[in-house]
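Shipment paperwork, digital attachment
Item: protein structure file
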Amino acid sequence: MAEQGRFGTFTGVFTPNVLTILGIILFLRIGWVVGQAGLAGSLLIILLANAVSLLTGLSLSAISTNMFVRTGGPYYMISRTLGLEIGGAIGLSLYLSQAISVAFYLIGFTEAFISVFPLADPRLLASGLALAFGILAFVGADFALKIQLGILAALALSLVSVFSGSWDAWHPPTLWASAQGGASFWAVFSIFFPAVTGITVGASMSGDLKDPMRSIPLGTLSAIGVTALIYVATAVWLAVHVPVDTLLTDSMVLYRIARWPVLVLVGVWASTLSSALGSILAAPRILKALAMDGVVPRLLGHQLGSATEPRMAVVLTTLIALAVIWMGNLDFVAPIITMFFLNTYGMINLTAGLERLVGNPSFRPQFKVPWILSLLGAAGCYTSMFLIDARATVAAVFLSYGVFFLLKRRSLRHDWGDIRSGIWLSIARFALMGLETVPWHIKNWRPNLVVFLRSPQKQESLLTLGTWMARARGFVTFYHVIEGDVEALAGKGYRRTSRRFMQKYLTEKGILAFTESSIVDDLYGGAVSILQAHGLAGLEPNMVLMGWAGRRSAQAEQLLLTRKLTALNKSVLFLRTHEERGFGAHGLIDVWWRGRDRNGELMLLIAHILRQSEPWQKARIRLLQLAEREEGVEGIRNHLEQLLHQVRVEAEVVVFTRADPRQPFTSVLRQQSGQSDLTLLGMRVPEPEEVLGYAEEIDRTILPLGSVLLVRNGETESILEEEAL
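Attachment content:
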């Protein structure tokens, strides 16, 4: 904590913000802006830019008063709200924009300097200053921030000099774009906008502030208000005192009209250099925060022996500034910075707006901002980006998304919460409330499957089948049932450990599903209670999947459970997986049809759903029916083909008779489906006294087959019901 609590509001936030905002644009470009856009146009540009910065400042204030902002400023706020991946994508953009800003301000300084003292190559001067500032930041921020107070005084004197001069030169202002100008409104806006991008410099010093929750809102909003008034006053003053052609051609017009020109010269040099100094102090702190979170290599956050300064980040920032200095001029760099900052500001606004809109009880900022203002600020940022340069906007968005997906693939771990679960919870709540009020129709049926597991590692076939069935826009919950005494096991954290282990196991297998765990005295008795309590109104489970037991007594219990679950309108599925073949080549699914009963409909729909999953996409579905007489085969085939056409399921109809009237059904099954990858067979609901005999009959029936799914439909309506014509 050595780096905490060194600076207050005025020194740590207000002063660096003001000195960054009142820099190059004020002294070297505001005249050009007025000349290009006219007084009314320039005031509109100033007000639009400051509206975006004000809305962003409000959002920044709301977020900063809801948390103790540590190193990283805006990056810290975004990553702790929207998640590390989004925060990292924006944080890298913010770091690059501030690193490039160092070069931007130094290029501006050399432009002002050579207008008075011509040099052969101004890039040498800018490079020397970049190295000098890099050394200063390498040594420490304390001295750098203290000398900014003197620079602030020099800036104030330069403004006094400007507004004290040219009282004898008055003429009617040009209100809108002049014929001499050639730039569009949004091109002029893109040149001016970097003037208001200094509002995050103070926030980026968050790790060094005594009270970030107080200093960031107060210092940021004060700086926005003061600098907006100065820009408006300067634009008006120039419009009524300087001819348009002079504004368009003379970048040092403030120097020409000032009462004491030397003070303006000092102000220009001081403000541009202080802006560069503020950026070279802020940018490395963002990079350090990114390194601390593992977004960039941790080496970049190394302090190289300093107790407070991110020296490795300072070195990299200085190198980036030098590269930009030798690459471009002022007007080339300005739009690049504009895009980076607008992207960052848009995300800050979006963060604050979503926090307020989602309504998490944990979002309790001392500085309250209506969500509509924050989202309006976000819309303003991204709209401005497209209007300024659509191609650059698309490039910036793709860059951010590229970083986002890269970080997503790296699966960076963090121990703080973010708003993403709150967003999904709000969407889910809205959807569930709507689902509760809208009448349900069988047309909207989809599988909501609960898969009961004794051991996820030993029942991978159940995990796989459950996943396939949920791929068709359904739901699946893998339920690990722990048999034992609740009092003895719950206190030892068995449920929590079981659920965490199962979720990890599913993640490793690439399976996306819900997981749950319960402790019950008995698996089959507990299943009835679980299924009645699981889910929400409108999203109750409608299907249950279990592995077909190996022991006869357990099979009898499963059939008794089937009686109870079908009484609750739950469909029951039992999977018997062939130990050697598994699901084979995923090429053939057989559905045994015994007339249009409820089992047949569900089996046909399950086969259709399975074919939507990747492994089964090329599989054939066969609809098989055994005819008692040869003369009935053609009629049954026509009926089944018509049925498939009506319910819009692609399947091959196979109707046949026994080769010998005495041939048992088990022999017919083996003959027709012995090589199938998955066979679906319907079950009846046996009476309690016949469950043992029926379990033996099922075992005898499925013995010669590969993997088998036993199905008992619990639905009361036809889930294959075709639409009325």
